[in-house]
Design a protein that fits this description.
five-stranded parallel β-sheet; alpha/beta; binds flavin-adenine dinucleotide; FAD/NAD(P)-binding domain; 19% strand
Length: 503
C-alpha cells in the first residue's frame, strides 16, 4: 500500500528538516511556506550588494556526529561549506576587564576560565559532567516529554546508568550549580553566565535549567563547535530544500496557512491556505507537522476545529517568549578593528546586552573590502506590538541610535562610516516570519519547562505533531532539527515504521 501523505506547515529549519527526513523515507510530503523563500529565522535578505542573515548567524551541530552533520549524512547531501569559529564568541563584560574568549580547544578554554574566573574549577567540572551525561543521552535520540508507551520505551532505551546524574539535577538551575560548588559569590562569573545563557535560553543563570545550561555553555568547545557558513545562512535551507525536492516532496512557497481543522468525513486533516494571489487552496492528509510557534494554533484552529478545550487553555497559558531588535549595518572593512572577532557579545544596560556578528572577508555576505554588521538585543513583543504608528517610528529610531552608539563605541566606528543601516523589530519578525507578536526563540529553558517538563511534540489531536523551538531541546537550528527528527520518528512509529538516523 502506498504511503499516506504528510503536510508540513512552515519551511524554517524545523519544517525543512522534517520534510527532508520524511521524503527520504518515501513519504509524500507537502511543505507549505508563507514567505517567498524557505529558512524563516535562519533565512537571509539582500540590500544592494549586501546579504544579511535575518536571525541565526552561527550554527552548532556541524561537527561529525552533530545533529546537522548526521542529518545531512543520512540524507546523502553534502554539508554546507563552513568554518569553525575559534573563538566561538568573545564576551565583553564592559567592566574594564579583558574580554572572555570562548576557545575551541578545551585546554585553552580551561586556562582562559581560570584566568577570568579564578576558583571556579569545581563549577565547570560539574557542568562538564552534566553535559557529558546529557550529550550521550541526547545522541541516542530520546523522546521528551514522553506521552505514550512508544515514547516511554524510546526514552528508557536512551537512558544509561550515568544519566542518573542528569536525573538528580533535573529540577536545578545553573545558579544552583554555582551554589553547590561555592561559586555563587563570583559576580563576574554570574555576569558572564547571565549573558551567555540569555542568548540560548532567554533566561539568566538563576532561571536556566542546569541540564540545558551545562550543555550550551560548552557548545563552542571540541568535540562540539560553533560554525560560520560560507555564502550565508540561506545555504543551510537551500541544501535541505534540494534534498526534499530530490526525494519527491512538494514545496509550496507563498502559501500562507490560514486554518487547520480535522476533516469530518475521513480521519484526516484539512489545511486551508492562501496562495500568492490570495486565492484559496486546500490540502488534506492524515498527518500534519506544525513548525510554527504552538501559540499560532490558537488563531489557526477556530473553536469548532477539533482542538480540545484543555489543550487550548494550555497553549493560551504558555509563557510569552521574547522578541528581538536586530540592527543590520554595513561598512568598509578598514573601519573595523584589525583583530575584530566574528561574534562578540557586549554587556550594556541600555538598551540591553548586544550580540554582534560580523561577516568575514570573502564569506559571500559583502563585496571585497566591506563587511556586514548584525547586532541583536532582546525586546518585549507586547510593547512593540502595542505602539501606534508614530510612537513606533520614534521608538524604532531611538533604539537604532542606541544600538549604533554601542557599536561605534566598542568598534571605534565613526557615524559617517556606515554604508547601510536598518532595524528590525518584533513587528518586522511578525510580518516576515509569521511568528505571533514577533516572538523569537522558544519558551525559555527554565528547570520546570525543559526536557521532561516541556511541551509535547505529540498533541492530543490525532495526527497533529509539533516541532520547532518550543519543543525539546529548544531553540537554534541544531535544536529545531533535533525536534524535527523526534516528531518524524513518532509519526513513522504511529504508521508502524521505524526511522533511524546514523550515529
Ligand atoms: C535575532 C535572532 C538570532 C538568532 N541567532 C541564532 C544563532 O546564531 N544560531 C542559531 O542556531 N539560532 C539562532 N537563532 C534561533 C534560530 O534562528 C531559530 O531557533 C530557528 O531558526 C527556528 O526555526 P523554526 O523552523 O523552528 O522556526 P522559523 O524559523 O520561525 O520557521 C517557521 C516558518 O514558518 C513560516 N510560516 C509562518 N506562518 C506561516 C503560515 N501561516 N503558513 C505557512 N508558513 C508560515 C515562516 O515564514 C517560517 O519560514 C536566532 C534567532 C533570532 C530571531
Amino acid at each position: 500500500m502506498s504511503e499516506q501523505p504528510v503536510i508540513v506547515v512552515g519551511a524554517g529549519i524545523a519544517g525543512l528538516t522534517a520534510s527532508a527526513l520524511l521524503a527520504h523515507e518515501g513519504v509524500p510530503v507537502i511543505l507549505l511556506e508563507s514567505h517567498h523563500q524557505p529558512g524563516g529565522c535562519a533565512g537571509t535578505f539582500c540590500r544592494g550588494n549586501f546579504v544579511f542573515d535575518v536571525g541565526a548567524t552561527q550554527v552548532a551541530g556541524f561537527e561529525v556526529g552533530g545533529i546537522h552533520e548526521r542529518i545531512f549524512r543520512h540524507l546523502q547531501v553534502p554539508l554546507p561549506v563552513c568554518d569553525l569559529l575559534n573563538p566561538g564568541c568573545v564576551v565583553q563584560l564592559a567592566d574594564g576587564s579583558h574580554p572572555i574568549q570562548l576557545w575551541h580547544d578545551p585546554m585553552q578554554w580551561a586556562e582562559e576560565r581560570e584566568r577570568q574566573f579564578p576558583g571556579s574549577k569545581a563549577f565547570w567540572r560539574l557542568c562538564t559532567d552534566l553535559h557529558n551525561s546529557n550529550w550521550e543521552f541526547a545522541s541516542r535520540n530520546p523522546v521528551l516529554p514522553a506521552s505514550n508507551v512508544w515514547d516511554f520505551w524510546e526514552l528508557i532505551r536512551a537512558l544509561r546508568p550515568n544519566n542518573l546524574l542528569s536525573g538528580i539535577f533535573s529540577t536545578c538551575s545553573v545558579s544552583d550549580l554555582l551554589f553547590l560548588t561555592g561559586c555563587q559569590k563570583d559576580q563576574r562569573l554570574t555576569a558572564f553566565l547571565d549573558l551567555q545563557l540569555k542568548l540560548y535560553s532567554q533566561e539568566p543563570a538563576k532561571r536556566t535549567a542546569a541540564l540545558y545550561g551545562s550543555t550550551v555553555l560548552q557548545m563552542a568547545q571540541k568535540p562540539l563547535g560553533l560554525w560560520h557558513l560560507h555564502g550565508s545562512m540561506q545555504k543551510l535551507s537551500e541544501s535541505l530544500a534540494n534534498s526534499l525536492l530530490r526525494d519527491g516532496a512538494k514545496l509550496f512557497l507563498k502559501h500562507r496557512v490560514i486554518q487547520l481543522k480535522v476533516a469530518t468525513k475521513k480521519e484526516s486533516w484539512r489545511i486551508d491556505a492562501l496562495d500568492s494571489k490570495g486565492l484559496p487552496k486546500y490540502f488534506s492528509a492524515p498527518d500534519v507537522i506544525f513548525t510554527l510557534p504552538p501559540q499560532s494554533l490558537l488563531d489557526l484552529m477556530p473553536l469548532e476545529s477539533g482542538m480540545p478545550k484543555s489543550y487550548r487553555r494550555k497553549l493560551s497559558q504558555l509563557p510569552q517568549p521574547s522578541g528581538a531588535l536586530v540592527f543590520y549595518g554595513a561598512l568598509d572593512r578598514n573601519y573595523l578593528p584589525s583583530e575584530c572577532p566574528t561574534h562578540l557579545q557586549i554587556e550594556a544596560q541600555d538598551p540591553g546586552s548586544v550580540f554582534l556578528s560580523i561577516s568575514r572577508e570573502g564569506d559571500g555576505r559583502a563585496p571585497a573590502g566591506q563587511a556586514t554588521v548584525i547586532a541583536s538585543i532582546f525586546a518585549e513583543c507586547s510593547y512593540w506590538m502595542s505602539l501606534d504608528e508614530s510612537n513606533y517610528r520614534n521608538q524604532k529610531q531611538l533604539m537604532m541610535k542606541k544600538i549604533i552608539q554601542i557599536l561605534e563605541h566598542w568598534l571605534g566606528i565613526a557615524p559617517h562610516n556606515w554604508l547601510h543601516k536598518e532595524l528590525a523589530t518584533p513587528r518586522s519578525f511578525a510580518k516576515w516570519t509569521g511568528r505571533p507578536g514577533g516572538m523569537v526563540g522558544g519558551l525559555g529553558q527554565q528547570p520546570l519547562r525543559f526536557g521532561p517538563f516541556g511541551l509535547h511534540s505529540r498533541t492530543p489531536m490525532n495526527g497533529l505533531w509539533l516541532c520547532g523551538d518550543s519543543i525539546y531541546p529548544g531553540e537554534g537550528t541544531a535544536g529545531v532539527s533535533q525536534s524535527a527528527l523526534m516528531a518524524c520518528r513518532q509519526l513513522m512509529a504511529q504508521r508502524n515504521k521505524k526511522m533511524y538516523l546514523v550515529s
